[in-house]
Design a protein that fits this description.
By secondary structure, the chain is mainly β. The chain has 1 helix and 8 strands. It has a 3-stranded antiparallel sheet, with no helix packed on it. A 3-stranded antiparallel sheet has the order 6-7-8, covered by helices on one side. A two-stranded antiparallel ribbon has the order 1-2. A hairpin with a 4-residue loop joins strand 7 (71-79) and strand 8.
């Protein structure tokens, strides 16, 4: 699940099912709800090279109106080239999935160690 951006960003029903993929350091999300429905994996909606941006992933467990699950992962993205900050929010389907994504994304953070 990914939170939509735009003017009604905090609307209660602003979460849509999206497919996330990680190929090496390239994190992508696609418009489609399942990997089987992605027609062209080389054309994601958005793409981030985790080795070229500073990213900080944070795990949250929240019961909040509108969240599809309580297993929230926030990805703060700092692009040093254009000096911009973005944030992706994704709700995972389980705590296990949340931890897998957290570790996979933080593996590209220079300060990440398995003990954290």
């Amino acid at each position: 699940w990914k939170r939509r951006g735009g003017l009604v960003r905090n609307a209660e029903r602003n979460w849509v099912m999206r497919t996330f993929t990680l190929y090496g350091p390239i994190l992508c999300y696609h418009e489609h709800p399942t990997i089987e429905s992605v027609t062209d994996p080389s054309k994601p909606r958005r793409r981030i090279n985790l080795s070229k941006t500073e990213t900080i992933a944070e795990m949250h467990s929240k019961r909040k109106r509108g969240l599809p699950t309580e297993d929230l992962l926030t990805i703060n993205i700092y692009d040093p080239i254009i000096h911009a900050k973005r944030k992706w929010e994704m709700c995972c389907t389980s705590k296990e999935q949340q931890l897998v994504w957290y570790r996979a994304i933080n593996a590209y953070d220079k300060g990440f160690s398995e003990g954290e």
